[in-house]
Amino acid sequence: MTDIRRLLAYVAPYWPRLALVLLLALVGTVVSLFVPYLFRALVDQGLVGRNSNALVRIIAMFVGLTLASYALNVVSGLRYTRVSADILFDMRLAVFRRLQQLSPRFYARMPLGQIVSRINADIGELQRVAAELALGWLGSVVYLVGSAAILWYLDSWLFLVSIALLPMSIWALVRYRRKLELSIADLRNQSAEMGTVLIESLQGMKVVVAHNAQEREVGRLRTPNDGFVASLMMMRRLTYLSGGLPGLLLTMGSAVVLLLGGMRVIEGQITIGVLVAFVAYQMRLVAPIQGMMGLYTSVASARVSLRRVHEIIDAPVDVRDDPDAAPIGDVRGAVAFDDVSLTFDRGAPVLQRLDLSVAAGERIAIVGRSGEGKSTIADLLVRHLDPDSGRVTLDGRDMRSLRLADLRRHVIVVDQNPFVFNTTLRENIRFAAPQASDAEITAAAMRAGLAPFVARSPGGLDTQVGEAGRALSAGERQRVAIARAFLANPSVRVLAEATGALDATTEAEVVAGYEELMAGRTTIVITHRAELAGRADRVLTLVWSEFG
Q1: For the purposes of burial, counting CB atoms within 10 Å of the CB of 393, is it exposed (0-12), middle (13-18) or buried (19 or more)?
Q2: Which residues pair with 351 in a beta bridge?
Q3: Res. 282 pLDDT band, cuts 50 70 90
Q4: Which residues on adjacent β-strands are paired with residue 413?
Q5: What is the reported pTM?
Q6: What is the Cα–Cα distance from 75 to 87, expressed in whole angstroms?
Q7: For the chain, what percentages of helix, strand and coil (3-state, to nearest 5) are there?
Q8: 547: pLDDT confidence band, cut at 50, 70 and 90?
Q9: What is the dihedral of CA 198, 200, 204, 207, to 10 degrees?
Q10: Which in 55, 454, 479, 507 has the greatest CB count within 10 A?
């Protein structure tokens, strides 16, 4: 019931559109319900009674009802596909928005393949099941109830015979339902594990080829694939047992009806038309019964997918806006760490009781060995993380009391592995300030040292840079991030190894641009380059001590 309530929360805004769809589907089902009944008149009046006028009239009714039912089902199906796509987009959007809120802690725990599997495969499965469930369930129920009433009217004794095996069918369905749910959950996880290996291998393809590790990667992929195939085979076996076995029992019931009904015709207890109509209904009855039983399989699959999706939606948000967060106002750029400690899921603290004050407009450099917490300082300054204890302040105000959007407009981090989108160089730079003019974008690009790339590219700033910036060198991707920082014009700049991939000449050009632009602005440089650290007003060396 909890799963249903959560799913209904997405459905509720679309209820008026769904009501129209369900009404059309209901009318279509009712119309199709009367088609098999025509076989009774067709046989008894048209064929046995040798009445050609009745034959033509009944066939015309048969064609008309069939076409009307088909048209109604097509219209309702198409409209439902549209509204279900909108509902599932809302769910996908909810997942996407939650992913935007989650901290690096979450991404350290959940592999990218698992996240992508939930957004694509699991929500796609929910959309498939939703399309089957609403219309399929409604149509099956209406058709079953109507058919049962007509079958009872045609011959109550044959009707009782036809449903004799139904309890065994239901037992077979319930017997394997729970096992099927567990099997589907395992299959989803195995598929995501295989996706994780594939994504990781594709991202590191240059390293794989450079070390002649192609076959090793194939072997690494084979292990999760074997697990996936084993889970798939188990799921298929349980699907056949939970859906196919009940259907087989119902089909055997139809054979019994044909045998006993034929004997009743021979004995003159019912007409041939009644038997033909009865069999026509029963043969059509097997499909909705099997469909409803198959819905259990779909529901089990949907429940697994829904819970996997909600693992992301329910993931705790470590960093969020305080309900009483106030506008930031004017920012001078004074930054301070007051007795800050942070563990970051490693057991031992990454930072322990850090005290640091940076005056407005001051430039400091932070140096230290890898793992000493330099990058963590950058994450704290833009609130990707919040400290476990202590506080980080901007102009004397605890950053947790400020609106996240305001804070991240005034504090910008340029890191050593900047992300570049699959669009033009111009749009990548504009990402930092959507309202920026072309002249401002050009100036930012030139100051960041992108002039050589722009000059040798036929498209200039409108050059497509490829997925993840594959058309750019590592240094050029860093310069794109630096250009974004110039364009954003924040009060505090944090340069986390921001020139790490630049050659000495280009670094000198970029640093000169910093000197021009950073006058009077707070700058925190996290670097191992002596040249860049030497330009700071102060140099802070982080040293880890087991004594704190």
Answers
A1: middle
A2: 342
A3: confident
A4: 494
A5: 0.68
A6: 19
A7: 65, 10, 25
A8: very low
A9: -80
A10: 479
